[in-house]
Amino acid sequence: VSSGVLGVWDKSETTEELRLIYPAWRNTALNISDALIGRAKYQVTALARSNVYVLKQDAIFELWRDRHFVEWLLWAMSRNHAMLTTYNVATRFKAVPERIIALIQAAYFQINGNWPRGSFEMDWPIRGSDFAEMLGISRPYLHSTLVALEMEGKLKIEEGRVNYIAERVVAEAN
After folding, report:
1. Which of 21, 118, 149, 165 is the most exposed place for a label (fewest CB within 10 A)?
2. Rg (CA), the chain
3. pLDDT tens-digit series, residues 114-149
4. 3-state secondary structure 116-163
5. C-beta separation of 52 from 162 below 8 A
């Protein structure tokens, strides 16, 4: 569990380089169960200042007899799978502006537990370089796309906040 935003990284199957697969927002419980057997598939790093609380293997085995802990662990595992799937689907949009919006909506879903209905504003502590890597684009291309989205009145990211303006709100304003 983290107090900030963590990045979950995986090795690319083709290049063996680490790539950011999704951010884990504060208060998200990550389950990296393969670490229990000594071979963690994913690497986790802080994308923003974070305090990370880790439950060690001995404590997990001790808590395994507690039904509530097992229920929580299964919930964390299924939530992690849902988040990974959500971010994976979002990164598959061909057009970069749609990919950016889909990833921001996926982050909203992870934080709030439901999909956004209309416009919203939320914290966005992810650095541009990390966001560009997650999108599979260069930092300058991300910047120019964000400027274009801002000019269209769809999105604004500044000072650690993102403001998303839903399509129907844009249409009503015109």
Report:
1. 118
2. 18
3. 888 889 998 887 888 888 888 888 999 999 999 999
4. CCCCEEEECCCCHHHHHHHHCCCHHHHHHHHHHHHHCCCEEEECCEEE
5. no
